[in-house]
Amino acid sequence: xxxxxxxxxxxxxxxxxxxxxxxxxxxxxxxxxxxxxxxxxxxxxxxxxxxxxxxxxxxxxxxxxxxxxxxxxxxxxxxxxxxxxxxxxxxxxxxxxxxxxxxxxxxxxxxxxxxxxxxxxxxxxxxxxxxxxxxxxxxxxxxxxxxxxxxxxxxxxxxxx
Length: 161
Description:
disordered C terminus; 6 strands; 6-stranded mixed β-sheet; alpha/beta
């Protein structure tokens, strides 16, 4: 596996562990801004190229309409990592992450050109997350994942096809 992809996987695992620790400390009953603030405080100082509340321009030639059919020129992201290669969305749902949230993140990734997304759900009693890989990069991600090793380290990452 190329060093760059291994680096991204390690950063995703660290984001997951950090978010899980924040969830264990704050519980599922806080406001979204508290979880986002705790993540921002942990990754302040541009650690891993982290940026909060980023406005990303839409790519020319992509469908410019969002889930509500509103024309979009810019998309707001909760967090980006690695100089805008990973888009992170913080949500609060009492139950599991819905397919609509995954589709919304995929749409944001599609119009902004971000290859990898991560949804962090702090609202459920058990911390939950989903990783979304853009379809243009999915085959490459699978090949690199298989070439890495046969066993996985850390928590299993949900891959949404």
